[in-house]
Design brief:
A hairpin with a 2-residue loop joins strand 1 and strand 2. The protein is of the alpha+beta class.
Protein backbone atom coordinates (compact mmCIF):
# COMPACT_ATOMS: atom_id res chain seq x y z
CA UNK A 1 0.00 0.00 0.00
CA UNK A 2 2.86 2.41 0.82
CA UNK A 3 4.51 1.67 -2.52
CA UNK A 4 1.22 2.36 -4.32
CA UNK A 5 0.79 5.67 -2.52
CA UNK A 6 4.40 6.64 -3.20
CA UNK A 7 4.10 5.88 -6.91
CA UNK A 8 0.75 7.67 -7.18
CA UNK A 9 2.13 10.75 -5.37
CA UNK A 10 5.18 10.89 -7.64
CA UNK A 11 2.90 10.37 -10.63
CA UNK A 12 0.71 13.34 -9.71
CA UNK A 13 3.61 15.70 -8.88
CA UNK A 14 5.69 14.89 -11.95
CA UNK A 15 2.61 15.17 -14.15
CA UNK A 16 1.98 18.63 -12.66
CA UNK A 17 5.56 19.73 -13.39
CA UNK A 18 5.34 18.48 -16.99
CA UNK A 19 1.96 20.14 -17.53
CA UNK A 20 3.13 23.52 -16.21
CA UNK A 21 6.45 23.48 -18.09
CA UNK A 22 4.66 22.37 -21.27
CA UNK A 23 2.28 25.32 -21.08
CA UNK A 24 5.14 27.74 -20.33
CA UNK A 25 7.19 26.33 -23.23
CA UNK A 26 4.26 26.89 -25.60
CA UNK A 27 3.59 30.46 -24.47
CA UNK A 28 7.01 32.02 -24.01
CA UNK A 29 10.05 32.17 -26.34
CA UNK A 30 12.45 29.25 -26.42
CA UNK A 31 14.22 28.65 -23.10
CA UNK A 32 16.71 25.83 -22.71
CA UNK A 33 16.00 25.82 -18.95
CA UNK A 34 12.25 25.25 -19.40
CA UNK A 35 12.69 22.75 -22.23
CA UNK A 36 15.38 20.92 -20.26
CA UNK A 37 13.18 20.76 -17.16
CA UNK A 38 10.25 19.48 -19.21
CA UNK A 39 12.33 16.81 -21.00
CA UNK A 40 14.23 15.52 -17.98
CA UNK A 41 11.05 15.41 -15.89
CA UNK A 42 9.56 13.34 -18.70
CA UNK A 43 12.29 10.72 -18.26
CA UNK A 44 11.53 10.51 -14.54
CA UNK A 45 7.85 10.28 -15.39
CA UNK A 46 8.54 7.23 -17.59
CA UNK A 47 10.02 5.42 -14.61
CA UNK A 48 7.02 6.32 -12.43
CA UNK A 49 4.62 5.12 -15.16
CA UNK A 50 6.45 1.77 -15.24
CA UNK A 51 5.90 1.51 -11.49
CA UNK A 52 2.24 2.46 -11.92
CA UNK A 53 1.78 -0.26 -14.56
CA UNK A 54 3.44 -2.82 -12.28
CA UNK A 55 1.20 -1.86 -9.35
CA UNK A 56 -1.95 -2.01 -11.46
CA UNK A 57 -1.10 -4.90 -13.74
CA UNK A 58 -4.21 -6.91 -12.81
CA UNK A 59 -6.63 -4.08 -13.62
CA UNK A 60 -4.75 -3.18 -16.82
CA UNK A 61 -5.03 -6.75 -18.09
CA UNK A 62 -8.81 -6.45 -17.80
CA UNK A 63 -8.74 -3.14 -19.69
CA UNK A 64 -6.73 -4.73 -22.52
CA UNK A 65 -9.41 -7.38 -23.00
CA UNK A 66 -12.07 -4.69 -23.38
CA UNK A 67 -13.16 -3.77 -26.96
CA UNK A 68 -12.69 -0.10 -26.01
CA UNK A 69 -8.91 -0.59 -26.16
CA UNK A 70 -9.02 -0.75 -29.99
CA UNK A 71 -10.72 2.61 -30.13
CA UNK A 72 -8.16 4.11 -27.75
CA UNK A 73 -5.28 2.74 -29.83
CA UNK A 74 -6.89 4.07 -33.02
CA UNK A 75 -7.39 7.56 -31.58
CA UNK A 76 -3.81 7.57 -30.26
CA UNK A 77 -2.36 6.60 -33.64
CA UNK A 78 -4.54 9.16 -35.44
CA UNK A 79 -3.57 12.05 -33.15
CA UNK A 80 0.09 11.02 -33.26
CA UNK A 81 0.14 11.16 -37.07
CA UNK A 82 -1.90 14.38 -37.05
CA UNK A 83 0.50 16.16 -34.71
CA UNK A 84 3.56 14.78 -36.49
CA UNK A 85 2.64 15.74 -40.07
CA UNK A 86 0.96 19.00 -38.94
CA UNK A 87 -1.69 19.89 -41.55
CA UNK A 88 -2.76 23.53 -41.91
CA UNK A 89 -5.13 23.66 -38.88
CA UNK A 90 -2.46 22.20 -36.58
CA UNK A 91 0.17 24.59 -37.93
CA UNK A 92 -2.21 27.45 -37.28
CA UNK A 93 -2.51 26.39 -33.65
CA UNK A 94 1.26 26.00 -33.34
CA UNK A 95 1.62 29.45 -34.87
CA UNK A 96 0.06 30.86 -31.71
CA UNK A 97 3.06 29.64 -29.74
CA UNK A 98 5.78 32.05 -28.67
CA UNK A 99 8.29 29.20 -28.76
CA UNK A 100 9.90 29.07 -32.20
CA UNK A 101 12.69 26.81 -31.02
CA UNK A 102 16.41 27.58 -30.82
CA UNK A 103 16.37 29.07 -34.33
CA UNK A 104 19.38 30.98 -35.60
CA UNK A 105 17.17 33.48 -37.36
CA UNK A 106 13.72 35.01 -37.19
CA UNK A 107 11.89 36.93 -39.93
CA UNK A 108 8.81 39.09 -39.42
CA UNK A 109 6.94 41.35 -41.85
CA UNK A 110 4.09 43.81 -41.33
CA UNK A 111 2.83 47.12 -42.74
CA UNK A 112 5.75 48.98 -41.13
CA UNK A 113 8.36 46.86 -42.81
CA UNK A 114 10.37 43.78 -42.04
CA UNK A 115 12.63 42.69 -39.22
CA UNK A 116 15.28 40.03 -39.54
CA UNK A 117 17.17 38.67 -36.52
CA UNK A 118 20.24 36.47 -36.86
CA UNK A 119 21.86 35.01 -33.74
CA UNK A 120 24.45 32.35 -34.64
CA UNK A 121 26.12 32.75 -31.23
CA UNK A 122 25.14 34.25 -27.84
CA UNK A 123 27.95 36.73 -28.37
CA UNK A 124 26.69 37.93 -31.75
CA UNK A 125 23.21 39.31 -32.43
CA UNK A 126 22.38 40.85 -35.80
CA UNK A 127 19.18 42.81 -36.42
CA UNK A 128 18.14 44.21 -39.80
CA UNK A 129 15.24 46.65 -39.59
CA UNK A 130 13.73 47.65 -42.94
CA UNK A 131 11.21 50.50 -42.82
CA UNK A 132 8.70 50.75 -45.65
CA UNK A 133 8.11 53.56 -48.11
CA UNK A 134 4.82 54.59 -49.78
CA UNK A 135 5.22 52.03 -52.61
CA UNK A 136 5.42 49.09 -50.20
CA UNK A 137 2.42 46.78 -50.58
CA UNK A 138 1.78 44.37 -47.70
CA UNK A 139 -0.90 42.47 -49.68
CA UNK A 140 1.69 41.90 -52.39
CA UNK A 141 4.89 42.03 -50.32
CA UNK A 142 8.21 42.66 -52.06
CA UNK A 143 10.58 39.84 -52.88
CA UNK A 144 13.59 40.03 -50.61
CA UNK A 145 17.03 38.46 -50.20
CA UNK A 146 19.58 39.12 -47.48
CA UNK A 147 23.08 37.73 -47.84
CA UNK A 148 26.75 38.19 -46.92
CA UNK A 149 29.66 38.83 -49.28
CA UNK A 150 33.37 39.02 -48.66
CA UNK A 151 35.48 41.92 -49.95
CA UNK A 152 36.23 39.95 -53.09
CA UNK A 153 32.49 40.29 -53.87
CA UNK A 154 31.81 36.57 -53.52
CA UNK A 155 28.69 35.21 -51.85
CA UNK A 156 29.44 33.46 -48.54
CA UNK A 157 26.01 32.98 -46.93
CA UNK A 158 22.35 33.68 -47.68
CA UNK A 159 20.70 34.79 -44.45
CA UNK A 160 17.14 35.07 -45.76
CA UNK A 161 15.27 34.84 -49.05
CA UNK A 162 11.54 35.03 -49.84
CA UNK A 163 9.93 31.66 -50.44
CA UNK A 164 8.33 32.17 -53.86
CA UNK A 165 8.67 30.15 -57.10
CA UNK A 166 9.82 33.15 -59.16
CA UNK A 167 12.44 34.36 -56.69
CA UNK A 168 15.45 33.93 -58.99
CA UNK A 169 13.78 35.92 -61.75
CA UNK A 170 12.67 38.67 -59.34
CA UNK A 171 16.07 38.94 -57.62
CA UNK A 172 18.59 38.35 -60.42
CA UNK A 173 21.64 39.83 -58.65
CA UNK A 174 21.28 37.58 -55.61
CA UNK A 175 20.53 34.62 -57.92
CA UNK A 176 23.70 35.33 -59.91
CA UNK A 177 25.78 35.36 -56.73
CA UNK A 178 24.23 32.14 -55.45
CA UNK A 179 24.64 30.47 -58.84
CA UNK A 180 28.39 30.93 -58.62
CA UNK A 181 28.36 29.56 -55.09
CA UNK A 182 26.33 26.50 -56.14
CA UNK A 183 28.74 25.89 -59.01
CA UNK A 184 31.64 25.93 -56.56
CA UNK A 185 29.82 23.50 -54.27
CA UNK A 186 29.19 21.09 -57.15
CA UNK A 187 32.81 21.21 -58.28
CA UNK A 188 33.95 20.66 -54.70
CA UNK A 189 31.85 17.49 -54.50
CA UNK A 190 33.07 16.22 -57.87
CA UNK A 191 36.74 16.85 -57.08
CA UNK A 192 36.39 15.85 -53.42
CA UNK A 193 38.01 19.13 -52.40
CA UNK A 194 37.23 21.46 -49.57
CA UNK A 195 34.67 24.08 -50.59
CA UNK A 196 37.13 26.93 -50.09
CA UNK A 197 39.79 25.25 -52.26
CA UNK A 198 37.22 24.73 -55.01
CA UNK A 199 35.94 28.30 -54.90
CA UNK A 200 39.51 29.61 -55.03
CA UNK A 201 40.14 27.52 -58.12
CA UNK A 202 36.99 28.74 -59.85
CA UNK A 203 37.09 32.40 -58.92
CA UNK A 204 40.78 32.95 -58.19
CA UNK A 205 39.71 34.78 -55.05
CA UNK A 206 42.10 37.41 -53.74
CA UNK A 207 43.02 38.15 -50.14
CA UNK A 208 40.02 38.25 -47.83
CA UNK A 209 38.63 35.35 -49.83
CA UNK A 210 37.49 33.07 -47.02
CA UNK A 211 34.10 31.45 -47.58
CA UNK A 212 33.49 30.47 -43.96
CA UNK A 213 31.01 32.92 -42.35
CA UNK A 214 32.60 32.28 -38.95
CA UNK A 215 35.79 34.01 -40.15
CA UNK A 216 33.79 37.23 -40.48
CA UNK A 217 31.17 37.00 -37.74
CA UNK A 218 33.12 35.63 -34.77
CA UNK A 219 36.75 34.97 -35.75
CA UNK A 220 38.80 33.01 -33.23
CA UNK A 221 41.77 35.36 -33.64
CA UNK A 222 42.00 39.07 -34.27
CA UNK A 223 44.29 38.55 -37.26
CA UNK A 224 41.61 36.31 -38.78
CA UNK A 225 38.94 39.01 -38.58
CA UNK A 226 37.95 40.23 -42.04
CA UNK A 227 35.47 42.85 -43.26
CA UNK A 228 32.33 41.67 -45.02
CA UNK A 229 29.24 43.16 -46.66
CA UNK A 230 25.62 42.68 -45.74
CA UNK A 231 23.55 42.90 -48.93
CA UNK A 232 19.81 43.24 -49.53
CA UNK A 233 18.00 42.98 -52.86
CA UNK A 234 14.36 44.14 -52.98
CA UNK A 235 11.80 43.90 -55.76
CA UNK A 236 8.11 44.81 -55.73
CA UNK A 237 6.49 42.73 -58.50
CA UNK A 238 3.51 44.19 -60.35
CA UNK A 239 3.87 47.51 -58.56
CA UNK A 240 0.51 49.32 -59.10
CA UNK A 241 2.10 52.71 -58.44
CA UNK A 242 4.59 52.33 -61.31
CA UNK A 243 4.04 53.35 -64.92
CA UNK A 244 6.62 50.79 -66.02
CA UNK A 245 5.62 47.19 -66.69
CA UNK A 246 8.70 45.75 -65.03
CA UNK A 247 10.85 47.83 -62.72
CA UNK A 248 14.24 46.38 -61.74
CA UNK A 249 15.11 45.28 -58.24
CA UNK A 250 17.26 47.54 -56.05
CA UNK A 251 20.33 46.50 -54.08
CA UNK A 252 21.42 47.94 -50.73
CA UNK A 253 24.66 47.23 -48.89
CA UNK A 254 26.78 48.08 -45.86
CA UNK A 255 30.30 47.03 -44.92
CA UNK A 256 30.94 45.55 -41.48
CA UNK A 257 34.44 45.60 -40.01
CA UNK A 258 35.22 43.97 -36.68
CA UNK A 259 38.42 46.03 -36.44
CA UNK A 260 36.26 49.14 -36.35
CA UNK A 261 32.94 47.87 -34.97
CA UNK A 262 29.77 49.92 -35.04
CA UNK A 263 26.57 48.95 -33.30
CA UNK A 264 24.33 50.81 -35.77
CA UNK A 265 24.89 51.24 -39.53
CA UNK A 266 22.58 52.31 -42.36
CA UNK A 267 22.54 50.34 -45.60
CA UNK A 268 23.02 52.46 -48.72
CA UNK A 269 21.40 52.04 -52.12
CA UNK A 270 24.15 50.92 -54.53
CA UNK A 271 22.17 50.36 -57.74
CA UNK A 272 20.08 47.97 -59.77
CA UNK A 273 21.24 44.76 -61.51
CA UNK A 274 22.01 44.79 -65.23
CA UNK A 275 22.94 41.79 -67.36
CA UNK A 276 26.21 42.20 -69.26
CA UNK A 277 25.39 41.25 -72.85
CA UNK A 278 28.88 41.28 -74.37
CA UNK A 279 30.23 38.28 -72.46
CA UNK A 280 30.04 34.56 -73.20
CA UNK A 281 28.98 33.64 -69.67
CA UNK A 282 26.28 35.22 -67.56
CA UNK A 283 27.54 38.33 -65.76
CA UNK A 284 25.54 40.84 -63.73
CA UNK A 285 26.72 44.21 -62.51
CA UNK A 286 25.10 47.03 -60.55
CA UNK A 287 24.19 50.19 -62.43
CA UNK A 288 23.54 53.62 -60.91
CA UNK A 289 19.90 54.03 -59.92
CA UNK A 290 18.61 57.20 -61.62
CA UNK A 291 15.16 58.82 -61.97
CA UNK A 292 13.99 56.17 -64.45
CA UNK A 293 13.47 53.72 -61.58
CA UNK A 294 10.31 55.58 -60.50
CA UNK A 295 8.38 54.12 -57.57
CA UNK A 296 10.95 51.40 -56.77
CA UNK A 297 12.79 54.10 -54.82
CA UNK A 298 9.77 54.31 -52.53
CA UNK A 299 9.54 50.63 -51.58
CA UNK A 300 12.17 51.07 -48.89
CA UNK A 301 12.45 54.13 -46.69
CA UNK A 302 15.52 53.03 -44.75
CA UNK A 303 17.41 49.90 -43.66
CA UNK A 304 19.22 49.83 -40.32
CA UNK A 305 21.77 47.18 -39.37
CA UNK A 306 22.37 46.61 -35.67
CA UNK A 307 25.04 44.22 -34.35
CA UNK A 308 25.46 43.55 -30.64
CA UNK A 309 28.75 41.83 -29.88
CA UNK A 310 28.63 40.49 -26.32
CA UNK A 311 32.24 39.28 -26.47
CA UNK A 312 35.56 40.36 -25.03
CA UNK A 313 35.75 44.04 -26.00
CA UNK A 314 39.55 44.00 -25.89
CA UNK A 315 39.42 41.74 -28.95
CA UNK A 316 38.11 44.64 -31.02
CA UNK A 317 38.95 48.30 -31.16
CA UNK A 318 37.10 50.45 -28.67
CA UNK A 319 35.44 52.49 -31.41
CA UNK A 320 31.64 52.28 -31.31
CA UNK A 321 28.87 54.37 -32.69
CA UNK A 322 26.97 56.80 -30.42
Amino acid sequence: MKKRRLVSLFNAILFGVMAVTGIIAFIQPFSIEIIGLHALTGFLFIGVVVGHIFNNSVALKKYIKSPVVLGVIGVTIFTTLLFYYQPAPIKKILGLSGNLGPALDLFEMDEKGMTYKYTPDPGYKMLIDLRTGPAYDLKNPPRLAVWMENQSLYHIKTLYVSDTPDIREQLPYWAFKVKGWEKAQKEAEEKNLSLEDSVDAVSEATANGSFDPADYILPTEQNASMPYRVMIEVNQPNDPSSKLDDQPSLVYEVEVDNYDPYTFQLLELVGFPVLEKDTEKEEWYLSYADESIESAFEIVDSVLLQIDRAVDKSFFKSTTSP
